[in-house]
Amino acid sequence: MVRDWPARSPDLSLIENAWARCEDYLWKHESWGNSAEFCAALERAWRASVTPEYCRNLFRSWEAWRAECAESGGDRVRA
């Protein structure tokens, strides 16, 4: 089945939403001084921010995002 898919739809990428949440957590709650510390901080940030509950909520809300994005002509619908 082929669905209408907005041409400009950054909001529909679940992984982009997850990475944005992780990055926000990383800058607010972590620090590092070298690449090894950064890798450890990134892993902690991912585990703390991209939880199973967060992922379930992303999946549950995706269809509503798709409809909202299609109605807006593919423009960004989330800040």
Describe the structure.
With 79 residues, the chain is mostly helical. It has 3 helices and no strands. It has helices at 14-29, 35-49, 52-71. The radius of gyration is 15 Å and the shape is elongated. The two termini are 30 Å apart. The mean pLDDT is 85.
Structural class: mainly alpha
Order of helices and strands: HHH
Q: How many distinct helices?
A: 3
Query: What Rg do the Cα atoms give?
Result: 15 Å
Q: What distance separates the N and C termini?
A: 30 Å
Report the uncertain regions. none
Strand content: under 5%
Instruction: Give the overall shape, derived from the CA principal axes.
Output: elongated
How would you sum up the major sheet?
none
The number of strands is 0
Mean pLDDT: 85
Q: What is the share of helical residues?
A: 55-70%
Quick take:
The protein is built from 3 helices and no strands. It is 65% helix and 0% strand.
